[in-house]
Each structure stands twice: as C-alpha cells, then as structure tokens.
Specification:
- This protein has about 130 residues and is of the alpha+beta class.
- Helix content is about 35%, strand content about 30%.
- It has a five-stranded antiparallel beta sheet with strand order 1-2-3-4-5.
- Helix 1 packs antiparallel against helix 3 and helix 2 packs across helix 3.
- The longest helix is centred in the first third of the chain and has 18 residues.
- It is globular.
Length: about 130
C-alpha cells in the first residue's frame, strides 16, 4: 500500500454525539476486531437491570506489538469517549497520553500504516479496515 494512500477509520463517525456515537463505536469495534483479531480486545457490558440488557462497547484496546510497544485504548462512558495511547518498554508502561477520539484514530491509522510497510499481517489488517 503506497504511503500516501490512506484509509479513514473516522468514517465510523466518532465525532457524533449520543446514539450516533454509540453506533459508531460499535462499528469501529467490529472493524478492529475483524481486521486485527489477535491485537484487539473489546470489552462489552450489558445495560438495564442487572446488566441483562443489550451489551454495548465500554472499551477498545489495540496492541500494536512488541516492535512499537504501543497500546491504544478507547474508553466509553455513556456519551463520553476518551482515547489514550500508552508506550511500553519491557512490558512496563512508560508513557500514557490522552488523545481526543479524532487524534486517537489518526495516531492509530499512522502507526498501522507504518507497520504495514514492514508487515504483511498489518497490510492485510489495513485492507480489512478499508472495507
């Protein structure tokens, strides 16, 4: 994939509010789970009484592996979405920075594109996200 060719995870619409936001986070979680199955963990919790209602995404976590030592985390609390990027060295977090959801998507996209230049697995994952 050429370096100038980009894909747009923000099509999931994380800029939206309310119900649209919840739907777009669900779409983003599904795309990441299917494109990066070994690297993505999605935590879902039920709503309603005793958590028996429909399950919604509460957290998305994407680990980009030992080479970059980077973990992306998107936490969802009602209508609020917070993004974080964590840098690790030797399995220990050395830096954790908050990112606005738009910045989170842009940073994850950039790291995946960089990795795709070196890895067939990452390249296939990017192709899955474009669909």
């Amino acid at each position: 994939m050429p370096a100038d060719e980009t894909f747009d995870l923000s099509a999931a619409g994380l800029r939206a509010d309310g119900t649209d936001l919840r739907i777009s986070v669900e779409v983003l979680a599904s795309k990441l789970e299917s494109s990066l199955p070994g690297r993505t963990r999605v935590e879902r919790r039920g709503g309603g009484l005793l958590g028996r209602g429909e399950k919604h995404v509460r957290q998305i976590q994407v680990d980009l592996g030992s080479e970059t030592g980077t973990r992306y985390q998107l936490a969802v609390d009602g209508d609020r979405v917070e993004g974080f990027r964590e840098r690790k060295s030797g399995g220990i977090a050395i830096k954790r920075e908050p990112l606005h959801p738009d910045q989170w998507i842009a940073a994850l996209t950039a790291d995946l594109q960089s990795e795709a230049e070196r890895s067939a697995e990452a390249r296939a994952a990017l192709e899955g996200l474009v669909r």
